[in-house]
Design brief:
The protein has 8 helices and 11 strands. The N and C termini lie far apart (43 Å). Strand 10 and strand 11 form a beta hairpin. 47% of the residues are buried. It is of the alpha/beta class and 194 residues long. Helix 5 runs antiparallel to helix 6. The chain has a 7-stranded mixed beta sheet with strand order 5-2-1-6-7-11-10, sandwiched between helices.
Length: 194
C-alpha cells in the first residue's frame, strides 16, 4: 500500500525545506498532500515563492497519513507553534505512533505541542534555546524513535531521504539518491565542496 505524508504549509515557510522534501518523497513513491494553515490554498513562503496547497488544515481526514512534516522558516514555524489546529495534529500524530518530522525552526512547534519530552532533537542553531524538553544534538539529522528533526535548508535532501527510510522505503531512498546524484556529491565532496 502506498505511503502517505502530510505537509503543513504556513505563510513564511522555508521554500527549499518544503519543496525539496515534497519532491524527494514523491520521487520515492509517497503520496504527499499539502495542507494550508493560511486562509487560502496559495501559501507564500519566506522568499515570496507561492505554493498551492491541496487542502486546508480544516479538512477532514488529515490523520489518515503515515506521518506529518513541518518545514521551517521562522515566520511559518511560529505560526505552526501558535496555531491550535496544527498543534492538535502534531500531538495526534505523536500519540498514534506515526512519523513526526520537522526541520530548521519548525521544532519549536514540536516543543509547544509537548512531543519532544524524553526525545532527542535538533534544529537550526538560532532556535536551539527554544528546544528545552528534548536532549539537544547538533547532528544534521536526528532520529529519535518516530520523531525526526533536522537543521536547515542545506540538510533537507538527506533529511527527506531519511524520511523515506523511516517509512520502510530503503530501496526507494537509494534509487532517489542515485537519480538525484546525491550519492555522487557525497563520494566526491572533496572536489565539489571547497
Amino acid at each position: 500500500m502506498m505511503k502517505r505524508f502530510l505537509v503543513l504549509l504556513a505563510k513564511g515557510f522555508e521554500e527549499t525545506e518544503a519543496v525539496t522534501a515534497i519532491d524527494v518523497l514523491r520521487r520515492g513513491g509517497v503520496d504527499v498532500v499539502l495542507a494550508s494553515v493560511a486562509d487560502t490554498p496559495l501559501v507564500e513562503g519566506a522568499r515570496k515563492i507561492v505554493v498551492k496547497a491541496d487542502v486546508s488544515i480544516d479538512s477532514e481526514g488529515l490523520l489518515d497519513f503515515d506521518g506529518i512534516y513541518l518545514p521551517g522558516g521562522a515566520k511559518g514555524a511560529k505560526t505552526l507553534r501558535d496555531d491550535a489546529r496544527a498543534q492538535k495534529l502534531i500531538r495526534a500524530y505523536k500519540e498514534k505512533g506515526k512519523l513526526v518530522a520537522a526541520i530548521c525552526a519548525a521544532p519549536i512547534a514540536l516543543e509547544q505541542a509537548g512531543v519532544l519530552k524524553g526525545e532527542t532533537a535538533t534544529s537550526n542553531p538560532d532556535f536551539k534555546d527554544h528546544i528545552k524538553q528534548a536532549a539537544y544534538h547538533e547532528e544534521p539529522i536526528v532520529v529519535s524513535g518516530k520523531l525526526l528533526t533536522s537543521r536547515a535548508a542545506g540538510t533537507t535532501l538527506p533529511f527527506a531521504l531519511e524520511i523515506l527510510r523511516q517509512l520502510g522505503l530503503q530501496d526507494e531512498a537509494k534509487q532517489v539518491s542515485r537519480d538525484m546524484m546525491f550519492d555522487y556529491l557525497i563520494e566526491n565532496r572533496e572536489k565539489i565542496f571547497y
